Amino acid sequence: MGKARFQETLEQVGSLSEEEQQSLVEIVRHRLVEQRREGLAKNIVAAKEDYRRGKVKRGTVEVLLREIKG
């Protein structure tokens, strides 16, 4: 979103009543939570698929650090 469009949106929000602004804030928060949840769900599906294909290793931090250091 460009700066002009963002500023216009802020001005429009400013023209709402306090109650409408509060409702808008709650709606935006809810949408952000849902977007994060959907992103996590996609990551979980991808991680499970990687695990199923053997692309994921299990082990301790110590083992991981040894492998990284070579």
Structure description:
The protein has 70 residues and is mostly helical. It has helices at 3-14, 18-52, 61-69. The model has no long low-confidence stretch (mean pLDDT 94).
Structural features:
single chain, 70 residues, mainly alpha, 3 helices, 80% helix, elongated
Instruction: Report the span from N to C terminus.
Output: 45 Å
- Give the biggest sheet: none
CA-atom Rg in angstroms? 22 Å
Tally the beta strands. 0
Can you describe this structure in just a few lines?
The protein is an all-alpha fold. It has helices at residues 3-14, 18-52, 61-69.
What's the layout of helices and strands?
Layout: H1 3-14, H2 18-52, H3 61-69
